[in-house]
Amino acid sequence: MKIRAAVLEQFGAPLEVQELELAEPRTGEALVRLVACGVCHTDLYTASGADPSGYAPTVLGHEGAGVVEAVGEGVTSVVPGDHVVTLFSPQCRECVHCRDARTNLCLAIREQQNLGYLPDGTTRLSRDGEPIRHFMGTSTFAEYTVMPEIALAKVDREAPLDRACLFACGLSTGLGAAINTAKVEPGSTCIVFGAGMVGLGAVAGCRLQNAGRIVCVDLSPERLALARGQGATETLEATDDIVARIVERTDGFGADYTFEATGNVGVMRQAVESARMGWGLATICGVAGKGETLDVVPRFLITGRRVAGSSFGGVKGRDQVPQFVDRYLAGDIDVDAFVSHKLALDDVNRGFELMEAQDGIRSVIDFA
Ligand SMILES: NC(=O)c1ccc[n+]([C@@H]2O[C@H](COP(=O)([O-])OP(=O)(O)OC[C@H]3O[C@@H](n4cnc5c(N)ncnc54)[C@H](O)[C@@H]3O)[C@@H](O)[C@H]2O)c1
Ligand SMILES: [Zn+2]
Ligand SMILES: [Zn+2]
């Protein structure tokens, strides 16, 4: 079928919305009609050429939500009409990682996905007979996409898809960092560095875990106001002496749990240093620039602090994304506050501009 999609032709150049050919879903795959898709930093990171593993041409987009239109052979977990959130981090439920509660890093299709192919090593996208590679296994800046069923989370049909799409990436990452990776205990003190989509999700996750104090740190007063709305009990504007200020506010010890959601390695270090001696856990969510390293004085670790990394919040997507959506529908998570702009697919580059200007938290492409 013919579809319209935003193609990354050349790094550093605007995306080009154009007509492509999308083939039928094969064994284990489903055809999804996109209804909404968030515009995320990872799309921009790849579009800019900064991502060393990036490739072009490709159809970007990974925060999608839509409706299953058709399924290939052997597909059992979704049927046409199901509402789904796309998962760049799939869950096959069979590999050694899927069967272990300690990780969400499914091994089933990693290699092909990283190269831009569906699990059988081919693409469904093409232009004039030339294959076009998929991005993050999702390619959701498009009217339709074909994806493996193991990368589709079936969600309640009551959930508006222009809200549900945010659970495809940043929001689930933040929620999961608090709930899965850190397993925040009731009554504890949490510090969240960064109040973008991921940090605000972490604030909400700490609240859902019944943390006692949730301190959010950011450079932007507007974003700190949003953090209050998600449950932050205190907010601090970032300064160079932020670690000392946090230690002072936590009886000289630091926090039980700290979260880094900025991508800045200096802030990652602050997250480690402001974790409490004895048991403080620093959870790192940010993606650092190529070649950057995290500098930690070992004394901080010997005296009982721990560091954990969190990819997609440790969320096993097919199981947990539907649960998050249910909590949103139950009124436990305020997703509306994150959707700042609605755009047409043709305005996808505007989404990048808004992101670079830090105008709002998320622009969502509306395919209606
Ligand atoms: N681990 C994962 O699976 C995963 C998933 C999605 C995004 N990410 C990464 O998480 C990070 C955050 O993503 P986002 O979408 O929330 O980004 P964002 O740019 O919207 O938010 C980052 C926030 O950090 C703040 N900030 C910058 N410098 C700061 C400082 N010195 N102290 C305190 N705050 C500071 C900014 O003001 C901004 O509000 C990025 O690095 C992104 O690549 C990781
Ligand atoms: Zn993303
Ligand atoms: Zn797996």
Protein architecture, described:
The chain is α/β, with parallel strands linked by helices and 368 residues long. The protein folds into 2 domains: 2-168 and 335-366, Quinone Oxidoreductase, Chain A, domain 1 (Alpha-Beta Complex); 174-311, NAD(P)-binding Rossmann-like Domain (Rossmann fold, 3-Layer(aba) Sandwich). It is 26% helix and 25% strand. It contains 11 helices and 19 strands. The protein has helices at 41-48, 110-115, 161-164, 170-181, 197-208, 221-229, 242-249, 265-273, 299-302, 317-329, 348-356, and strands at residues 2-8, 16-22, 29-38, 58-59, 63-71, 83-86, 125-127, 130-131, 133-134, 144-148, 152-155, 189-193, 213-218, 234-237, 257-260, 281-284, 306-309, 339-343, 362-366. Strands 3, 5, 6, 10, 11, 18 and 19 form a 7-stranded mixed beta sheet that branches. A 6-stranded mixed beta sheet has the order 8-7-2-1-4-9, with no helix packed on it. β1 and β2 (16-22) form a beta hairpin. α4 packs parallel to α5 (197-208). The model has no long low-confidence stretch (mean pLDDT 97). One zinc ion binds at residues 40, 42, 62-63, 169-170. The site of one zinc ion (ZN) has 9 residues, from loops.
